[in-house]
Amino acid sequence: MTLAANAVRWLAGRKVIVDGVSVSVEPGQTLGLIGPNGSGKSSLIRLLAGLRAPAEGDVLLDARKISGFGRRELARRVAVVEQHSMTEANVTVLDVVKLGRTPHRSALSPWTGADDDIVEDALVRVGLTDRRDQFWHTLSGGERQRVQLARALAQSPSVLILDEPTNHLDIQHQIDILRLVEDLSITTVVAIHDLNLAARFCDRIAVLSEGKLVTCGTPAEILTEELIADVFGVEAHVSTSAHHGRLHIQFLM
Amino acid sequence: MTSSRIRPWVVGTAGVLLVLAALLVAMIAGVAIGEMTIPMKTTAAAVTNRLGLTDIPVPRIQEAVIWDYRLSRSLVAAFCGAGLALSGAILQSLLRNPLAEPYVLGISAGASTGAVSVMLLGLGAGAISLSVGAFVGALLAFAFVVMLASGRQTADRTILAGVAASQLFNALTSYIVSTSANAEQARSVMFWLLGSFAGVRWPDVALAASVVSIGLVVCIWHSRALDAFTFGEDAARSLGIAVGRVRVVLLLVTALMTATMVSMVGAIGFVGLVIPHAARFIVGPGHMRLLPACALVGALFMVVADIVSRIIIAPQVLPIGVVTALVGVPFFSVILYRARRVA
Predict the structure, then answer these.
(1) CA of A79 to nearest chain B CA: how many angstroms apart?
(2) Are the beta carbons of B238 and A79 separated by less than 8 Å?
(3) Which ipTM was obtained for this model?
(4) Domains in chain A, start-ordered, CATH in brackets?
(5) DSSP per-residue string spanning B169-218
(6) φ, ψ for residue A160 (rounded to 5)?
């Protein structure tokens, strides 16, 4: 599915957080959102996920306005992994992943074998099959993100939206999560801090600054030394990695 | 291990039957125990006579005490416990706050104010009943708490807003009682405010039964949605839950159940707090099982609490709120302490 934002604007009180941003992501592609803290990444993510309604502009899913979708209809197509997931409830890994089936079931419809298969498949994908009975509050940050990813996969979405899924994870778990997402080959939007990871895992990157879209393109087109200096205010050296052929960004400090 | 594992549904069914049996025993005890000593045989006969099953001669007065006073009282206690426990479970899940319950959030206080306004001030000029007054009061308290705690809804803010609401509405109630009631009224209102099943009769049973049954059905209908609230409102929304609608419906149902109970038996605290936690401990956090479990365990708890309130200083009756608070406050402290450690 194609997901697109068309000149969306969003305000918190009177403050403009997202200011006329247009981005789109083609089926099966991964769009990365980068930008400094407070540049509007998370807000744009919420608009794209339909969790907030834009004050102006539209979000389109296959050229149809998402405001025209029913909540459940949308949740069967678009799954979201938030930056932090917190709960006081004493839920297990399996309980959480099963939540992903919520939009596919009506209020009292029974749990089916097909639901079981989908949940099992999601657990296999994130490598947590043997942890299914473990309690949420005993999991590490990386495991929690994998559980949430499995929950999102259990939604059987066509579009996956992730808000800084690698935040607070160590480097190994950062790469694990992004590899998992890469292997899914569904339409993905991911807000991400680490420019090297963005360059490595995204097909296209949109750069945000102060709520506005600075530029959008392939990593090689836009991750230039000038842009990094302009937007992030740091001096960097950009080269092509001899190892994986993608961009490699070194910060000069 | 050679022994095969027992299937979960067997354990579940056995648990339900066990609690039902305990509830039945407690209700029988509730009917049999009282100021007037009536033999068990007579008690049983009085009940079966009225149910049209038997026609055993029983002294009129004894039959009346059994049927009109004690049985109705036990039934109201059961429904009241179920309704309050259910309300607590819903509020805890919806507000994602382990300390939420109608009493702590000041909703019971609001309902009391509403009921007292109708009772003593004659608000509504007889056109509205005590229950309606209580319902309006409960909604006002709810609105007050939601307004104060809006924005970043953290656990502390919601509870603080609840404290403010409790203080405000209790003050209003006291003001109304001090200015508008004579000594006799004031005494009975104060006793009623602490919770008392003394005055309930069969029409109360009918009201409590219908409100709690409707509440239970509506809540169970929303149990999937409540599960989806595990990780907060945005997470629920992204799972396809119409968050706004679910919130309004469930908060209204909670207010209705609380208001009905308060208008009937006064503000009874901590049942809505203790029971959901106990039930969660037994059946886990899934609402499809948790909500019926809350209703059952809540009913059992309240019937037992009512019996305790009647025998502990017999022949006098302790306000039921005193009994539940004596159990509830230590429990509340433990949760508060644990919540602090987790955060």
Answers:
(1) 7
(2) yes
(3) 0.89
(4) 1-77+159-223 (3.40.50.300), 86-156 (no CATH)
(5) HHHHHHHHHHHH--HHHHHHHHHHHT---TT--HHHHHHHHHHHHHHHHH
(6) -115, 130
Q: Which residues of chain A have pLDDT under 50?
A: none
| Of the candidates A182, A214, A187, the residue with the CA atom closest to the CA atom of residue A41 | A214
Buried b (16+ CB within 10 A) or exposed e, A183-216: ebebbbbbbbebbbbbbbbbebbbbbbebebbbb
**Is A172 part of the contact surface with chain B (CB cutoff 8 Å)?**
no
Q: Does B239 touch chain A (CB under 8 A)?
A: yes
pTM of the shown model: 0.87
How confident is the model over B114-148, as pLDDT tens digits? Answer: 888 888 877 665 566 778 888 889 889 988 888 88
Per the structure block, which two tokens stand in for A91?
């839920």
Q: Which chain B residue shows the shortest CA-CA distance from A80? A: B238
CB pairs under 8 A between A and B: 76
For B8-342, CATH gives 1.10.3470.10
Q: Does residue B8 have a pLDDT over 70?
A: no
Contact B221 A108 (CB under 8 A): yes
Percent above pLDDT 70 for chain A? 100
* Confidence at residue B4, expressed as pLDDT on a 0 to 100 scale: 46
B304 to each of A160, A190, B25, B63, how far by Cα in Å? Answer: 52, 55, 10, 22
Locate the domains of chain B by residue range: 8-342
A99/B241 touch (CB, cutoff 8 Å), yes or no: no
